[in-house]
Amino acid sequence: MTADRGPGAAAAATRDGLVVASYGRHLLVEDNDGTRIRCHPRGKRQEAVVGDRVHWRASGDEGVIEAVQPRRTVLFRQDAVRTKVFAANVDQVLVLLAAEPVYSERQLARALIAARHAGIEPLIALNKRDVQPAFDEAWARLAPYRAMGETVLPLQLGDAPDEALLAALQQRLHGRVTLVIGASGVGKSTLVNRLVPEAQAQTQRISQALGTGRHTTTRTSWYWLRDGAGGAVIDSPGFHEFGLHHIAPEALAHWMPDFAAYQGQCRFHNCTHRQEPGCAIRAALAPHGPIAPQRWQLYVELYDELSAARAH
Ligand SMILES: Nc1nc2c(ncn2[C@@H]2O[C@H](COP(=O)(O)OP(=O)(O)O)[C@@H](O)[C@H]2O)c(=O)[nH]1
Ligand SMILES: [Mg+2]
Ligand SMILES: [Zn+2]
């Protein structure tokens, strides 16, 4: 700091920060001392997202993001039209499902493939255990996912919350940055409010800081867990169509743990596991083996979709 520099005498130095919320083209950046500043990106092509570490420079009461630091992980979806980055530098994705609304296995399977492809650990939780028999039916539908080694946790967050179930989830969130995704109505906001009691107040402060008004919810927000270990949860809106156009069809089976177990065992090394003779994956379909038939159907549907996308 030089004493003779008056305000505006020279450009402010760049500082490190963390993107903690995004709304349209505005971002909220948290400084190392915890201060939050509304920032704009420098240039049209720069895309900073929640979880990004950035260099930013103060400019009046606002800031400009000068550079986005290299990302450790990035989760995105890609369809024919656009690529949408959910968040950067997350350790874990929590796919929140509920007894109601009935979840789409297609969406679940796609989210898991996207996470594995991005090198991010997925975690599945099924909420609304009190809603019966829908919960037990949904739990049974998740059997293939438990069998392939995915972690699936029950939850009850509603009016009669089950604290022990929440504590089991909290243990898995400790010290990690977790992105929460799930369809509208599954209980994402309820969960974040339980994990971070001041979340509602924080959301209001974020909306004010971004100048979007009290009732506008930001698109994606970062909440510190205050677990003393740097843990955080990122609340993001709905699932949408989970496009996987960034993944080659031939690579799909590699990101599906129940299929990957048979990798290299097919007669043909370039087997697509659709109609080739001597396919080890098709031979492992129930009732002959452990792979659930709907998993193979989801695979074929996705394989065809990704192949068609590449042919264009
Ligand atoms: N019965 C029941 N309802 C729940 C439970 N958890 C959340 N809800 C309700 O489900 C509705 C949707 O929750 P919300 O958190 O807004 O879902 P979001 O759209 O994913 O953010 C709300 O009315 C919650 O009170 C639960 O464990 N059981
Ligand atoms: Mg919500
Ligand atoms: Zn095969």
TrEMBL record:
Cofactor(s) the protein requires to work: Zn(2+)
Cofactor note: Binds 1 zinc ion per subunit.
Binding site residues for Zn(2+): 266, 271, 273, 279
UniProt-listed SUPFAM superfamilies: Nucleic acid-binding proteins, P-loop containing nucleoside triphosphate hydrolases
UniProt domain EngC GTPase: residue ranges: 88-240
Cellular-component GO terms for this entry: cytoplasm
Keywords associated with the record: Cytoplasm, GTP-binding, Hydrolase, Metal-binding, Nucleotide-binding, Ribosome biogenesis, RNA-binding, rRNA-binding, Zinc
Pfam short name (any one): RsgA_GTPase
Domain of life: Bacteria
Keyword Zinc-finger: no
Domain CP-type G span(s) in chain numbering: 77-242
Quaternary structure annotation from Swiss-Prot or TrEMBL: Monomer. Associates with 30S ribosomal subunit, binds 16S rRNA.
NCBIfam families reported in the protein's UniProt record: ribosome small subunit-dependent GTPase A (TIGR00157)
Function: One of several proteins that assist in the late maturation steps of the functional core of the 30S ribosomal subunit. Helps release RbfA from mature subunits. May play a role in the assembly of ribosomal proteins into the subunit. Circularly permuted GTPase that catalyzes slow GTP hydrolysis, GTPase activity is stimulated by the 30S ribosomal subunit.
HAMAP family listed in its UniProt record: GTPase_RsgA (MF_01820)
Record-given protein name: Small ribosomal subunit biogenesis GTPase RsgA
Organism lineage: Bacteria, Pseudomonadati, Pseudomonadota, Betaproteobacteria, Burkholderiales
Gene this protein is translated from: rsgA
